Amino acid sequence: MAECRTAKASDIPALKAIWRECFPTDSDEYIDCFFEDLFKEEDMVVLDDGEGAKCMCALLPCTLVLGSRTWPISYLYAMSTLPAAQGKGHASQLLGFAADYCRLRGDAGIALLPADKGLSEFYARFG
Fold first, then answer.
1. pTM of the model
2. What are phi and psi of 90, to 5 degrees?
3. How far apart are CA 46 and CA 97, in angstroms?
4. Which has the closest alpha carbon to 102: 77, 72, 81?
């Protein structure tokens, strides 16, 4: 059974490999910069199938501001599943975990900007 959890520093090589395979237009410099400047174990979740990370996403802490009201939220970024592991429900499982995790850490919600219509439809299933 696949396990969802927060990332560990020891996951970084596998997470970079997932990123490179799933986002081939992102440069190594960009990916390295993300992990050097933004990576925090508590802000990235992974799905590990017992053989290593297969799916990941960053949950970057943000503040939603509407008028004079503010709410803590997470910005879901770089959601990706290794192509060889796709079609097994890993992304759905990880999104469910991410939603529960964000609620537990006090977030009012999760924001994201899907790259295309197909992704918008996928994420819409999760509210």
1. 0.88
2. -60, -45
3. 9
4. 72
